[in-house]
Amino acid sequence: MSRWGGGFEDRDGEGARSTPEIPLRGGAGEGRRLADALNDESGMDDRGDYGGAGRHGAFSEPFGDETAPGPDLERAGVHAVALTWVDVAGITRVKTVPLARLREVAERGVGMSPVFDVYLVDDSVTTSRHIGGPDGDLRLKPDLDRLTVLAGQPGWAWAPVDRHHQDGRPYEACQRLFVRRMARRAAEQGIELRMGYETEWVVSRGDTYACTGPAYGMARVVELSGYLDDVHTALRAQGLDVLQLHPEYSQGQFEVSLAPADPVGAADEAVLVRETIRAASLKHGLTASFGPAVDADSVGNGRHLHLSLWRDGRNLCGGGDGPFGMTPQCEAFLSGVLYALPALLAIGAPSPASYLRLRPSRWAGAYRCWGPENREAALRFIAGGPDDPQSANAEVKCFDPAANPYLVAGGVIAAGLAGLDARLALPAPVSGDPVRQDKDRLPTSLTEAVKAFSSSAVLREALGEALFDAVIAVRTAEVELFDGMPPQQLAEATRDRY
């Protein structure tokens, strides 16, 4: 095995694979599912931590025609459906349709210009070699397997979309289809990825933080117990499996973690979690800020990615002879991710404001190193307890909520598979704060990250030319947009945009 020394091989061929149908999700009542007609009193499905089964099936078809959503949704009080996708800048965009049109839209799609793939965070527009300008149209096709009644928005349901050309061909710059494609590549090597996001946000009331209790303190839960109860209740009602929700370090900051899912499902849930928190916050007269930096001098918001690799029901992150029980496949995959982190930051830390957060000694993962249970390392490895080795997983800490979660999941898979192809090995683990150990610093600006991304043959091949160029165009334009802006002004300009 080479230690980051070998070249990464390109891969092609993306054969499809089928798995059992994915259950629909309900938001009315006690976490019931639309597949049970919203009147079956069965509870949520049983799922554990990273030792649990994957939830959504990475290879389910994007939408099915055997589902009859209309009557069930009507009984749930739904009048309209929000159809969302996330653009390159990390903004969740939407088209809504009345419930009566949902079946038609599932079959034919609803129109939307491709130009949104070169929108910036402030809604200005750039252009790229393949995308830009007023011409063209796409069809947004909802994934009805993810159809969810929104517990915090009475009258509404939600579904993510895949984007297609008008003739039915998959749109080459669709980020959701990108992560689906990468999951299939992993499956061709017999590997199933399970992923889960931790979402951090800051809640405020007007110009002040919504609570005054100390970091990680019970006082914050007492101050905002009604609000946090509504967040818990809404997430559960939508079928989301919350592992934990707790106060974080910065003033008014909280974090919620979900159980693992397949890569597409995990990204879908990251979108749904954010909008659910937003709705609960507004109900209580609060503002939820998901920007990477709410205050330039404070610890920012992260959205860390947890992942594990599975084969034939076995967690490849544990039970092996490698570092801390890793199998060779796990070590090579994680080494590929670690190697690619400077380039991956253009996807996972995509805003100039991301680099206000990505600072040493803030548990943000500012150094390209890894370590067991090391919260300062960009890649933290969790070996799992002696009584539960199947829970072993890795956490990528340097990503934040400005990122498109579909691009993050797909990019990480692509980098990990490249590490597998090259049979890479991890460098020595790091314990303690790497700032005192002369370790490699990750890019300190979006400009540096874009430079690393632009030279990544692995990510260029995986994303395809259209999406790869769109990422470069949007990142470059946002660097220019915020060039010379003082740090606090940058934080204020971006903190409530996502």
Secondary-structure map with pairings?
Blueprint: H1 69-75, E1 80-86, E2 92-98, H2 102-108, E3 110-112, E4 138-142, E5 148-149, E6 156-165, H3 175-188, E7 192-205, E8 208-209, H4 218-223, H5 225-237, E9 242-247, E10 253-258, H6 263-283, E11 287-289, E12 305-311, E13 314-315, H7 328-348, H8 354-357, E14 367-372, E15 377-382, E16 393-396, H9 405-422, H10 446-454, H11 457-463, H12 465-481, H13 487-494
Parallel strand pairs: 1-6, 14-15
Antiparallel strand pairs: 1-2, 3-4, 4-6, 5-6, 7-8, 7-10, 7-11, 7-12, 9-10, 12-13, 12-16, 15-16
Summarize the structure.
With 498 residues, this protein is α+β, with helices and mostly antiparallel strands.
Class from helix and strand fractions: alpha+beta
| Uncertain regions spanning at least 5 consecutive residues | 1-24, 27-67
Rounded average pLDDT = 88
% residues in beta strands: 15-25%
What spatial form do the alpha-carbon principal axes imply? globular
Helix and strand succession? HEEHEEEEHEEHHEEHEEEHHEEEHHHHH
End-to-end C-alpha gap: 41 Å
Overall strand count = 16
Task: Please outline the major beta sheet.
Answer: 10 strands, mixed
Rg result:
21 Å
Helix content: 25-40%
Helical run tally: 13
